[in-house]
Specification:
Layout: E1 2-5, H1 8-13, H2 20-26, E2 30-36, E3 50-57, H3 61-81, E4 85-88, E5 91-94, E6 105-109, E7 117-119, E8 125-127, E9 129-133, H4 135-143
Helix pairs in contact: 2-3
Length: 146
């Protein structure tokens, strides 16, 4: 589940309680509307989803103050040291926290293409990035609708 583009300058300069990340999850409630299929596409190409349920959710304070804050602190330290950009076969990789970082959240690209870039605080250019909640974490949240 992706969110807005990261403002790396703000990330570097803001205190935790003023950060884009903290504000998003401390003050926002989310409405999950979950649909499900009873059969696989192989069983029925014309299958119809049904409404499994709805759920109003906000991130627990313990997650905000541990895993989310850990993402913020680690990313801030990387920005202070300078993001490592490494050319790879299909683009450029970086050392920002990835999907296996802490089981809850991570940073990854969210851009039109490799040319859709922003400037990092150290002057380097990087493909636009955003923060994400891991799919397994979201699956655990909506599993309560079972």
């Amino acid at each position: 589940m992706s969110f807005e583009q990261i403002d790396f300058h703000r990330w570097l300069n803001d205190a935790w309680e003023d950060s884009q990340l903290y504000e998003k999850f401390e003050y926002t409630k989310y409405l999950f509307v979950v649909f499900q299929y009873d059969e696989t596409e192989k069983e029925n190409k014309n299958r119809e989803p049904y409404l499994k349920g709805i759920m109003l959710w906000n991130m627990p304070e313990v997650v905000i103050e541990h895993e989310l804050k850990e993402l913020w602190k680690t990313t801030k330290a990387i920005l202070e040291e300078g993001v490592q950009l490494t050319p790879v076969r299909n683009g450029v990789s970086n050392n920002l926290p990835g999907a296996s970082f802490n089981g809850i959240c991570h940073i990854r690209p969210k851009a039109r293409d490799g040319k859709d870039q922003v400037e990092l605080p150290d002057g380097q250019r990087i493909t636009k990035q955003c923060y994400w909640l891991n799919r397994e974490y979201i699956a655990e949240i909506v599993k309560e609708l079972s």
